[in-house]
Amino acid sequence: MAKTKRLLFLFFLLLVFSQKNLRAANETGIHIIPEPVSVTAKPGQFILDQKVSLQMTAEDRSLSETAQWFRTQLAQVTGISIPERKSGGRAIQLHLITDGSKSSLGTEGYHLTVSPSVISLSANSAAGIFYGMQTILQLLPEDASAREGKKSLDLPCADITDYPRFGWRGLMLDVSRHFFTKQEVERYLDEMVMYKFNTLHLHLSDDQGWRIEIKSLPQLTRVGAWRVKRIGGWGESLPALAQEPATDGGFYTQDDMREIVHYAQVRHVTILPEIDIPAHSLALIASYPNLSCTQLPYSVNAGFKTPVRDDNALCIGNDSVYLVLDKIFTELAAIFPSEYIHIGGDEAYKGFWADCPKCKKRMQDEHLKDVEELQSYFIKRVEKILQSKGKKLIGWDEILEGGLAPDATVMSWRGMKGGIQAAKMNHHVVMSPWDFTYLDLYQGEPSAEPPTYGMCRLSASYNYDPVPDSVDEKFILGGQGNLWTERVPNFRHAEYMTWPRGLALAEVYWSPKASRNWDDFVVRMESQFPRLDAAGIKYARSVYNAICTPVQTKDDELEVKLSTEIKGLDMYYSFDGTFPDAWYPKYKGEPIKFPPGSTNLNVITYRDGKPIGMQVSVKKEELQSRLN
Ligand code: ACM
Ligand code: ZN
Prior knowledge:
Blueprint: H1 2-28, E1 38-49, E2 53-56, H2 64-78, E3 91-96, E4 110-114, E5 118-123, H3 126-139, E6 152-162, E7 168-174, H4 182-193, E8 199-203, E9 205-206, E10 209-210, H5 219-222, E11 226-227, E12 248-249, H6 254-266, E13 270-277, H7 282-287, H8 319-335, E14 340-344, H9 351-355, H10 357-365, H11 371-388, E15 392-396, E16 409-412, H12 417-424, E17 429-431, H13 434-437, H14 458-463, E18 476-483, H15 491-498, H16 501-510, H17 518-534, E19 547-552, E20 558-563, E21 570-574, E22 592-593, E23 600-607, E24 610-611, E25 616-619, H18 620-627
Parallel strand pairs: 2-3, 3-5, 7-8, 7-18, 8-13, 13-14, 14-15, 15-16, 16-17, 17-18
Antiparallel strand pairs: 1-6, 4-5, 4-6, 9-10, 11-12, 19-20, 20-22, 21-23, 23-24, 23-25
Helix pairs in contact: 1-17, 2-3, 4-6, 8-11
């Protein structure tokens, strides 16, 4: 009995505590993503108007680029321009901590105090100041940019201490499958830094396009950057016709890329370049056909099945391959300040190596017992090339096959197991397991989404933890969300696929694990939506859609369970093909049955008497197939 009472008391405490957390987001009006380490709301407001100035002490001039970024951003979001001034009046004061009291803020943390007379922001580095500025921007009213003729805006007084859980907080943008312009990449950077991401991984090469100028290898951008134009139907499109011009694609000149790198640096982001080898290399092979085992002529893939299946890998026995790679990495190393270069390494079909005389000779000469060891030989040799340029190697988890290169870092994508294996071998790991972090997957009921494959709901991204129980956290550098773009043909859709899952991942990689709270996140996420709207950023509202889960009954009938990711939504449904609304049957929580003759279920969600989600429409046979 005493034990039951204790349990009840604990449950009560838990309830009070979670209510308090919810209140923290709901009532204080402080809705920050990613959730800071500590937020204490204080009474009063700081009034932001034209009289406010930005102040820094003389020795903080190293902040001037970051300060300039902030003044421009603030003016863009609010229409209020604040001058820089030495002292006096109401102010936003920036302060670099130089007295050795480095504290727990680390290299990216900050301390922010908002009082009625001053906003004081201090950090050990310009990056910390930058993240504090992002928090200030989120303290502005949600409708800051929508208010007509605004002259002043209130920020709630608060005391905030904040620093990230991980130093690697990345998004990956695949610019090969679809090319995104320099301006679009810069826009993506602007969006990701709102949520304190610090790494943009650019997937610069694949079967569908080579995207970076290499001056010593001009065919890469003359041939490899261009393909015939196809729209939709990825993986099924018509192969290139004889003489059909390759007009679709593009590439970044080295000057373009230097501008992107600089744009990122101002925003405290590292650009991580990826050249995907030894497979996923059709654009390279189309440009220089002597580099594959078969040496067949190919064109860059425009979403069609390749004429010879899986022939997209470099010949590991051919020494010209290493000369070409040396040229590529020499030029990349001069453009990208990143400590790492990503060499891909994923999904190599090894059958052509097994049959190739040059590859077989390489295996013999190097005493390699199988094609896995041949791949490992290749990666180790590439690691030496990178090291000769002062760079470290990172690759997808397939680089573990046949033996990991001595100093390689592993990016784990086929779940977490590759990352676990690498960490146990004392290698560094960046986590990006597909089922939690792949931004190209469905984020809600597929019938209400553009076609793709697989499922990665917002709640799955939010509830994932990048440090598995069996692993020492010190080997996990952090993680990423990865946007593959086979089915992302334009930038608006790139935004749609990134947000709000990017918000969830921002919190996973920045905030303390103990502060993770889905219900609280939903409240804070919804307060981001007007900010995203105001900035013209597209995002998915799939989290409001009904989830239809098939259930097989004992008598072999199909029933459907309906649910939603977020609390407090009502669901109305129809089986007769018409559009349900609040006058239709309301879902009561028990599985529902298809009436005889019905082949389709439509469901719509409501909140507080108003429709909120999109209507999802699922065929009986589709639900049946999900059971199989
Ligand atoms: C990958 O998704 N092939 C890394
Ligand atoms: Zn070969």
